[in-house]
Amino acid sequence: MSVRPRKPVTTSLSKEAAYDTILRPIITEKATLANEHGQVTFAVPVTATKPQIKAAVEMLFDVQVTAVNTILLKGKTKMFRGRPGRRSDMKKAMVTLAEGQTIDLMGA
User: Fold this and answer.
1) I need a surface site. Which of 2, 6, 10, 88 has the fewest CB within 10 A?
2) Which has the closest alpha carbon to 43: 103, 90, 97?
3) DSSP helix/strand/coil, 20
4) Radius of gyration of the chain from Cα atoms?
5) Which residues pair with 84 in a beta bridge?
């Protein structure tokens, strides 16, 4: 039984779909430290996949992405006007860029 190597996944997105995939950058102390090592963190929709995130970042920022790691953050239960409410779930994507490439999130 031979094992065939996997084909690389290529995803093509329209410009509108790319903007819908990357909601906003996450700028925290931890994300800023990771940014110094070539890793940028974005908030993405819960339904976004890693190939979609990679294609969107490469299209919007014109950089080469080497890896995408995601984490699904479950919403907390909090009190809202005396009644229990629930915050929305959120997905974060940590995108590792190729050596020597950067994304400037602070200005332009």
Assistant:
1) 2
2) 90
3) helix
4) 17
5) 79
**The token pair that represents 70 in the structure block:** 């995601």
Q: What are phi and psi of 52, to 5 degrees?
A: -65, -40
Give the β-pairing of 24-25 and 83-86. unpaired
pLDDT digits (tens, 9 = 90+) for 24-43: 999 999 999 999 999 999 99
Q: Which residues pair with 44 in a beta bridge?
A: 91
Closest-CA residue to 95 (of 59, 66, 56, 62): 66
pTM of the model: 0.83
In the structure, what pLDDT confidence band is assigned to residue 73 with cuts at 50, 70 and 90?
A: very high
What are the DSSP calls for 27-71, one per residue?
A: --HHHHHHHTTTEEEEEE-TT--HHHHHHHHHHHH---EEEEEEE
74, two tokens: 């479950």
User: Hey, what are 98's tokens?
Assistant: 């190729």
4 vs 54, which has greater pLDDT?
A: 54
